[in-house]
Every structure is written in C-alpha cells, then in structure tokens.
Amino acid sequence: AQSVTQLGSHVSVSEGALVLLRCNYSSSVPPYLFWYVQYPNQGLQLLLKYTSAATLVKGINGFEAEFKKSETSFHLTKPSAHMSDAAEYFCAVSERNQGGKLIFGQGTELSVKP
Amino acid sequence: GAGVSQSPSNKVTEKGKDVELRCDPISGHTALYWYRQSLGQGLEFLIYFQGNSAPDKSGLPSDRFSAERTGGSVSTLTIQRTQQEDSAVYLCASSLKNEQYFGPGTRLTVT
After folding, report:
1. Conformation bin of residue B23: beta by default, left when phi > 0, alpha when psi is -120 to 50
2. What does the pLDDT look like over B61-99, one tens digit per residue?
C-alpha cells in the first residue's frame, strides 16, 4: 500500500534561515504529490503539487519542492523563513487512476524563532 | 468565490448518540472527499464521491459511519452510536481535477 513518510515531527528554524521539510513516498509508479499547510484551527491549504510536469515545483508563499524519482522524495524548501510560516505541513500522495484520494504523512510542525 | 463550507464547526455529543456533519463543496466540483484528523491517527481518508459513480467507501472505519451526497452537491457524513474514539476533526474537500480544496472542518467531541 502507498505510504508517506515525513522525517521529523517538529522542525525549528530561525527567521531568515532555510526551511527544509522532508517527504518520502513508497510507490513503484510516481504518484501525484502535494504539500499542504495547516494553520491552527484552520483547514488545509494547498502549497504546491507535482503531477508529472516539471520536477521542480513552485508554490505559494515562496515555497518550492523538487520531485526526485530516484530517491522517491518530494522535499519542501523555502530559502528564508518568516515568522508567518509557523504551521503544520503535510505531504500527501494520490495514486494515478485511483480517484484522487490522498494519503497523508504524519505532518511536520514548523516553528520559526525570531 | 466561496470555498468549501462545513457545519457545524463544533459538535459535542454524548456517547451513543447519532451525529450528522454537513459539507457544501465548491460549486461545479465533481469530486467530494471526507477525511478525519485525530491525534493518534493523523489524517485519514474516509470516503470519496465522484459524479454519479458509486462512492469509494474503503476508508470508513466501521459500519457506524455512512455518507450521502445529494444531487451531486451537498454531502452529509453520519456517525451512528458515537464512541469516544470518534472524537476528531472531520474535514471535507472538493475537487475538479487534481487539486483538493479543504473546508475548515467540524470538531467532534464525544463525551
């Protein structure tokens, strides 16, 4: 069965530092890949998605992610963290031709220190 | 335009009672999904509707859970004989193609 692993349930960075949130998936066929952000007491907001076009995907709020088939990874990065980036981030996959239901990682809580 | 809306935002119920959670998807979106978010289990898929096709119920945890989607739009998730382990945030999402747009969720507390 498809699974998603996010390394690190909690990541802390200083304001202005690089943000790197890791995501690995298990699938022999590259799935669709997504990153979502969740602010406290809110729903999930789509940051970016990979659906087989360019492997480097740019999203909202300065985030980007690179799909690496050889590593089955889809890590999320942002060059310079801002205080407003503090939130929980979820990596998710959906199998092609499986209706689009999402399988989520366990989430990574990002803290940004001033 | 209007996003996905869910009601109620919070629901407290006694163990053994039935509850109904409502989802209003984005107009024109053909697919609708229900997920559950809990501390112990993270985010789990529950059920998926696509147009007039039979729903994918593979994520429903027990036969106490059911869902309907009327007229290809509004959906209701029903939990019968609620148990304490049903306490969670229930999220609804709708999509037209590959992107799912989520509602704010309904926080269910079973006492």
Report:
1. beta
2. 999 999 999 887 999 999 999 999 999 999 999 998 878
- Burial of B22-35, coded b for 16+ CB within 10 Å and e otherwise, reads ebbbbeebebbbbb
Predicted local confidence at residue B71, as pLDDT: 81
Which residues of B are less than 8 Å from A36 in CB distance?
A: 102
Using the Cβ of B38 and the Cβ atoms of chain A, whether some distance falls under 8 Å is answered with no
| Dihedral (CA of B48, A9, A48, A86) sign | positive
How many contacts, defined by CB atoms under 8 Å, are there between A and B?
Answer: 50
The CA–CA distances, whole Å, from A15 to A65, A86, A108 equal 20, 10, 17
Write the DSSP assignment of A63-83 as a string of letters: -EEEEEGGGTEEEEEESS--G
Q: Model confidence over B26-62: pLDDT tens digits?
A: 998 999 999 999 987 889 999 999 988 899 999 999 9
CA A94 to chain centre: 13
Mean per-residue pLDDT, A58-73: 94
User: CA–CA separation, B39 vs A113, rounded Å?
Assistant: 25
